[in-house]
Design goal:
The chain has helices at about 10, 15-25, 25-40, 50-60, 70-95, 105-120, 125, 135-145, 150-175, 180, 185-215. With about 220 residues, it is an all-alpha fold. It is elongated, with a radius of gyration of 19 Å.
Length: about 220
Amino acid sequence: MDWSLFIDLFTNADRFLTTLATEYGILIYVVMFLIFFMETGIVIMAFLPGDSLLFVAGAVTASGAIDPWILTAVVTLGAITGNTSNFYIGNWLGHKIYDGSISWIDQEALNKTHNFYLKHGGKTIFLARFVPVVRSFAPLIAGAASMPVARFELYSISGAFVWVYGLIWAGHLFGNIPFIRNHLTTILLCGICSALVPTAILATIRFFKRRSEAKTTAP
């Protein structure tokens, strides 16, 4: 396989998906499973495209290159198992995730998700499916908070189904509309920006805040 193809995942997703489907067959489903497993199950992979990729994938299914039902089932399974693994990582780490000693955890994103969890409780796991970055941290928070497993899975499974089914089939329904078909890359890039821009802004604010505090405490 030409691994440079994966650059298209972020710049030309419809070509990425169509090439995988036509040249590598069933591998398209394996790759989509892994993408959504990692996006929801590994917090450092929160940058992976989520909502926009689902919509673009749905649009590609309208051309017949990918089976929409198999894709929906595979991605839903990836999102559920990713959430579950993330939950158990949070349960294992416990409150250590908040002390800043774990370098691979973005504390700003973590705190944002924690506040979201305090406001919405268990429903956070369902609602977070529709919020970029937050959905990657919500299972970690729930695990650290020792949320009952059965309750977590109820929200996780129902949220995954509504999120995946809704976006893939919205893309499938509108995928043959010329304007949407011709602007799939723009849709993908907008989705990626919606996840990365807030994180970049928070990181910039944190940088200047620390810089200001350093100047204030300097002799």
